[in-house]
Amino acid sequence: MSRTANVTKLDYYEVLGVERTANDQELKTAYRKLALQYHPDRNPGNPEAEEQFKACSEAYQVLSDPQKRAAYDRFGHAGVNGGGPAAGGFDGSPFGGFEDLGDIFGDLFGFNVGGRGSRGGNSRVQKGRDVRCDLTLAFEEAVFGKETHVTIHRREACGDCNGTGAAAGRGPVTCGQCQGRGQVRYQQGFFSIARTCSACGGSGQVISDPCPTCRGDGRVDKQRNIAVHVPAGVEDGTRIRYQGEGDVGRFGGPAGDLYVVLSVQPHKFFERDGNDLHCAIPISFPQASLGTELTLPSLDGEVRLKIPEGTQSGKEFRVRGKGVPHLNEHGRGDLIVQIVVQTPTKLSKVQKELMRQLSDSLTVENTPTSRSSLFEKVKEIFS
Fold it and tell me: How many cofactor units bind, and how (predicted)?
């Protein structure tokens, strides 16, 4: 009974070829690789390359912006108003998100062209990686929400060196190769090229005596219990993001995020379609013919359902407000009950005689009909 929506745009993460947990640096690396590959200047007269370039630029414009990415993760393309060039801010310039060719070369190969100055600053600073945790929920817990805890393993600042990576009392020292500037500058013809210092990684400092606890990394592994709020109405595969709860960044860099990925167990007879719940219930031929009143289970108590006389197999009845709560909104979906009239397979002699008497008293037009008409009737019943 599930219904699939038409997909008109590719997933932004698939366009860039990255995981949904990719950090900023992974997004930037993937984007710039694709931008160099598909840029129109490198593919003159190739409309497919131009479309690929626009697609990856659009994807990066959204995913590199924390607010737009959060909206896209939650609502898809609708959360960023289609995410097109007008919405995403792609300006159509030769290199989209890059300022010029030297900007690309500088980031990819570690040098700046044309005297643009240092781009890295303290490039030794690194953002922490995101952490993923899987949480399995019962069907009812996904419908009504849950407060729980998850246990995660993440990297936190080393207490012995306060995250510096250097032994206690020592600290980093000025890099002798770049004299603390983080870059080594070369003159080549008309260009002044500044290359990231290979000795200090661009930080301008090196650790001569590393901390024995973290071995110079500045971080250690820790186990933590994190409180998780599961809102009512979540679906299987929903990701809940907790900003700053991932690995701590190195050398003062920002922490990554925690993503709690939900897995919802199936119900024994309810099937979910959006915010509606579906189930089928068998009734006998006399109940369908004469009508009856049924007591049905729901996720929050029993409900009464009146079946009118003459109900046909496949007929659906809607019980308002007994479905799944709308996520972060008011209201609930409905419970949709499909009637299935069962034909008895074993009858006693008395029952058979009664059925014969009933059959003789009933008038049924056994008139042939076209297969297409019959198919349409069956399709009406089960659609």
Answer: Binds 2 Zn(2+) ions per monomer.
- As assigned by CATH, the class of the 1-109 domain is mainly alpha
Give 282-314 as a DSSP string: EEEHHHHHH-EEEEEEETTEEEEEEE-TTPPTT
Binding region: 158, 161, 175, 178, 197, 200, 211, 214
pTM here? 0.57
How do residues 195-215 score in pLDDT, each as one tens digit? 888 877 777 878 888 889 988
DSSP letters along 59-103, please? HHHHHTSHHHHHHHHHHGGGGGTT--HHHHT----TTTTSSSHHH
Per the annotation, binding residues for Zn(2+) are 158, 161, 175, 178, 197, 200, 211, 214
Helix (H) or strand (E) holding 37: helix 24-38
C-alpha span between 292 and 225 (Å, rounded): 53
Q: Does domain 271-382 have CATH number 3.30.70.20?
A: no
For the segment 98-130, what is each residue's pLDDT rounded down to a tens digit?
433 444 444 444 444 444 444 444 455 678 999
Amino acid found at 241: R
- The domain limits of the chain are 1-109, 271-382
Residue 212, class by beta-carbon neighbours within 10 Å (0-12 exposed, 13-18 middle, 19+ buried)?
exposed
Q: What are phi and psi of 305, to 5 degrees?
A: -130, 120
Distance CA 15, CA 31 (A): 9
